[in-house]
Design brief:
281 residues; globular; nine-stranded mixed sheet; Spore Coat Polysaccharide Biosynthesis Protein SpsA, Chain A; single chain; 39% helix; 10 helices
């Protein structure tokens, strides 16, 4: 690896090529910093692998990892982590769209403290403090770009400590991955593997930060919704939480209460089996 700073951007894909194309186009258009792009093809049923391999032929920054079958989001991420060469890694959903300055703002938040291990942006589609509840655009990406520019100017340099960073876009210090490992593959196709990763990072003494001046658009759950109905996605969420709850020995939440509170888990202390390092292989 060269002496210049390199960010390894990992995008796991399972179909939904049109969204992946938008995502990668936005990366090349909005990321002047040095990066490598690792496209992990998780057994896509469409032409994603063919398209990705063409990108790799056209640009030496692009690398393709064809997994042959859908091994789940966590295993896809871990394959990318194992291949990454950067001083930090960035996990990005293929239905995200980035804008000018996005990576420099995330990097600045990561660099502000050597104990910051994970940084995430603000977003239009997720749960938690990273959400901007109302954005002045629908899915018009030209309007989104203008909004992102205004948002960045109005919130320049603003950061917020967090107990959770949503895995649709997270910048992670490589030392953290070396310490705690990757995403836990027991979570299958997705849901709560990012919660688990963040809890393990916090319990290892790392800080999580939201870069409030960085906005990344997220279409949201496109791979899940391509595989079934919204009711099916809800069932997948419930199944993911049950795995998470069992792993962390959490009580069933009362009706109307949040799934769990990360700060309560941190205050209780680690569950030994839950904080074991997750191998990338």
């Amino acid at each position: 690896m060269s002496t210049s700073r390199l960010t390894s951007i990992i995008i796991p894909c399972h179909g939904q090529l049109a969204y992946t194309e938008l995502c990668v186009e936005s990366l090349f258009g909005g990321t002047p910093e040095a990066f490598e792009l690792i496209l992990v093809d998780n057994g896509s049923p469409d032409d994603t692998r063919v398209w990705a391999e063409q990108q790799a032929r056209n640009d030496p920054r692009v690398h393709v990892l064809p997994l042959g079958e859908n091994l789940g989001f966590a295993r896809g991420v871990n394959a990318g982590l194992a291949a990454a060469r950067g001083s930090e890694v960035l996990v990005l959903n293929n239905d995200a769209v980035v804008t000018q300055g996005w990576l420099s703002r995330l990097r600045a938040a990561l660099d502000a403290s050597p104990r910051t291990g994970i940084v995430g942006p603000m977003c239009n589609y997720l749960d938690g403090p990273q959400l901007i509840p109302e954005v002045p655009y629908d899915d018009d990406l030209d309007d989104m770009v203008l909004f992102a520019e205004r948002w960045a100017e109005e919130h320049a340099g603003q950061r917020e400590s967090a107990h959770r960073i949503v895995g649709f876009c997270m910048l992670v210090r490589s030392e953290l991955v070396n310490e705690i490992g990757g995403f836990d593959p027991r979570f299958g196709n997705g849901n709560f593997e990012d919660d688990d990763f963040c809890l393990r990072a916090l319990l290892a003494g790392w800080d999580l930060v939201i870069a409030r001046d960085c906005f990344v658009h997220h279409f949201g759950s496109r791979t899940f919704l391509s595989l079934g109905s919204r009711a099916g996605y809800r069932q997948a969420m419930l199944a993911g939480f049950e795995r998470f709850r069992h792993k962390w020995q959490l009580p069933m939440p009362a009706e109307g209460q949040p799934w769990y509170r990360p700060q309560d888990v941190i205050a209780r202390g680690p569950v030994a089996s839950a904080v074991e390092r997750i191998a990338l292989g």
